[in-house]
Specification:
Elements: H1 10-23, E1 38-49, H2 57-78, E2 82-94, H3 106-118, E3 127-131, E4 145-147, E5 153-156, H4 163-176, E6 183-186, E7 196-199, E8 204-207, H5 210-213, E9 222-225, H6 244-250, H7 262-265, E10 268-273, E11 280-283, E12 288-291, E13 303-313, E14 318-329, E15 336-341, E16 344-345, E17 363-364, E18 368-370, E19 377-378, E20 380-381, H8 399-402, E21 405-416, E22 421-431, H9 449-457, H10 477-485, H11 505-514
Parallel strand pairs: 1-2, 1-3, 3-5, 6-16, 9-20, 13-19
Antiparallel strand pairs: 4-5, 6-9, 7-8, 10-22, 11-12, 13-14, 14-15, 15-16, 15-17, 18-21, 21-22
Amino acid sequence: MPAGGRVRCATLVLAALMLAADATAAVFPRRPRSQSTGLRDSVYLKLRSDSGRPMASFQIAQIRELEAQTRKFYAVNSGGQYDIRFTHILDVPLALNSNGTRPDDWFGLGENYVRSNYGIEPEDFHLNLFDVSSTEPDADQGWSGIAVSPGNNIAVQPDITSDWGKIVVDHELGHHIGAPHSGAYRAVSDNNYTPYVWDGDREQYREYSTSRDGLQPTTFGVHLDGYGNPYSVMGNISHEHFSIIAKHDKYGWLSDEQVPELTDLGEGTYRIYAHDELLLARDETFDYYGVEETYAADKLYGLRYTRKAERFNTSTRRFEPYNQELTLEYRSGRDGVQFYMGEAILDMDLEGGTDRNNGERELEVGQSISDLAFGTSVFWSDTEGEDFLSFNPPAPTDPWELNDEWYEFSVLGTSSDDVGSYIELSVTRLSQFPITLAGDYNDDGIVDAADYTTWRDNLGAPAGTLPNDPTGESIGDDQYAAWRENFGAIAGGSSAVAAVPEPAGVTLAAFLALGGAVFLRR
């Protein structure tokens, strides 16, 4: 048997796995339906110099410890839908360069060694993990880990017993099954990046200042830090859970019902549950990992919506329309909601400052924000020294020309129940066209007899004379009909009277002259 190898009958294990899952409340992976699901097998290749010592038993034990941590991490992230085991741990000696670096095509050389010496075909496995920590990095290497796409190879340079090495392993595996990097928009102002805001009064751009301009999540020239999300392992800063974007959009671990479109839900108060609280389950008999209970099918773990926006194109020097994806999520133990624009987190808290490791990036309990405040017209940069004003940009488009409706988000509080921790978020719509009360011609919030007097006094006047006139015609019979139809209505309510009068001719005039209308307010 190869060093550290384990031989299993995949069919028998999978059958036993499904029976065990049906017999308990725990959830374990079923048959793979995508790259990011199922119980998967992999090959771990420990590359070293052919003049060095073979892999020792203590190194195999360290690799098994890494394997357990990776399997646990993916089990709880996936809700028991994905598990990967190191089916073979193989010692792979190669002739290194004189400076200890790897020869050209070391991926291919390693795979051929496995074929020739172990009788194993690497292409038959879900993943080949190349541990190259015993070799020297190239002078211009520039990576700690790498995932080859298309293909089933990843490589890790740092020591896998270190915290950084463990992050890199799970980060590169995340790429392998379909997730990109998780970045952050950071309005830093330094020698490399200069953010700007639009001054509507002066009709010009000016340099952003937190003391003067307050919170501005998407300044013009905001730094897009491609690895800057401190909440996700795909940000390369921490070993935290994947974002909702990865879990829903990329991996399919969460459904559309669990992360619904906000446009389908509309206004309301919503509980968004923490998606990083699932408890690990293990079946040692058949060696697989899962969770005690998976994500609740009838709960929300995030919200998402698409809106029209525009982004600046440096080639054309124009703002160009595009569909902007926004996602909201909540993490266990936090006191706010996280907002994502595309794949990157938005900075919703000035307390986070310029430190990319600072986790204060959320809209916190007690705070509100309208999405008019960010991302309507955007220009971000990941190139040092690139200055927005050097492109002579035009004025941004008025946000109301991009969308007729926007949202206001208010974070109400946090709590927990039998499902887990959650945050309550109030969502209201902001409309370009305010809701008017047709027939309320004196604009006092109620359609009553006084509005008839206002109508009568303006008979024959041109269209637009009266407020809350839905007709668009000169003042006459159409406005009277609107008043009559809505008599008794109250702004924000349905009716203010017990019965709608039917005034006509002299009766109506007498009714108004006497002022005898009785209004029963609810």
